[in-house]
Amino acid sequence: AQSVTQPDIHITVSEGASLELRCNYSYGATPYLFWYVQSPGQGLQLLLKYFSGDTLVQGIKGFEAEFKRSQSSFNLRKPSVHWSDAAEYFCAVGRRATSGTYKYIFGTGTRLKVLA
Amino acid sequence: EAGVTQFPSHSVIEKGQTVTLRCDPISGHDNLYWYRRVMGKEIKFLLHFVKESKQDESGMPNNRFLAERTGGTYSTLKVQPAELEDSGVYFCASSQDAKGVLHYNEQFFGPGTRLTVL
């Protein structure tokens, strides 16, 4: 069965420091991969997605992620974190079920705290 | 353009009571999805509407959950009777029709309804 693992439940970084959030997936076929962010009181917002091609994907808000098939990973990175990046981040695999429905399989999320 | 909206934002009820959650999708989006996140767990798919029809309800936990989308606009998710394990955050998402070979249509999520069953 497909699954997504985010091994870090909480991460704390200082403002201006670099950030890497880990994501590993288990999926038989070529995965469609996503990172979402949820800020307090907001809905899940798509940061970036990977379907194929260049394995380094650029997203919004200065985030990027790198797909590594050999490691089944899709880690999210940002070179310099801003206080406004404090939020919860979700990695997800997208797949089309036999019903025709396109579904996301999410990880458990990583909550990011940013120190001033 | 308004995003996906959900009402209420929070609901606290006692075990055995009934609660109805509402989702208003982005205007023009035929696809509407419900997901749920139980505390500390991953966000899980519940069901998918295409217009007013249920395309996939494989994630619905049991028959205490009833989802409707009359007229193909807003949707409601009723829990009756609520149990302690139903506590969590219920997310709604909507998307346009999938087009193209990627068969992918971005789902836009609402802020969620936090349900607490005491």
Outline the structure in words.
- The complex is a heterodimer of chains A (116) and B (118).
- Chain A is mainly β and 116 residues long.
- Chain A has strands at residues 3-5, 10-14, 19-21, 24-26, 32-38, 44-50, 56-58, 64-68, 73-78, 87-96, 102-106, 110-115.
- In chain A, strands 2, 5, 6, 10, 11 and 12 form a six-stranded mixed beta sheet that branches.
- Chain A is globular.
- With 118 residues, chain B is mostly beta strands.
- The model of chain B has no long low-confidence stretch (mean pLDDT 91).
What is the element layout, followed by pairings?
The complex is a heterodimer of chains A (116) and B (118).
Chain A: E1 3-5, E2 10-14, E3 19-21, E4 24-26, E5 32-38, E6 44-50, E7 56-58, E8 64-68, E9 73-78, E10 87-96, E11 102-106, E12 110-115
Parallel strand pairs in A: 2-12
Antiparallel strand pairs in A: 1-4, 3-9, 5-6, 5-10, 7-8, 8-9, 10-11, 10-12
Chain B: E1 5-7, E2 10-13, E3 19-24, E4 31-37, E5 43-50, E6 53-56, E7 65-68, E8 75-79, E9 88-95, E10 108-109, E11 113-117
Parallel strand pairs in B: 2-11
Antiparallel strand pairs in B: 1-3, 3-8, 4-5, 4-9, 5-6, 7-8, 9-10, 9-11
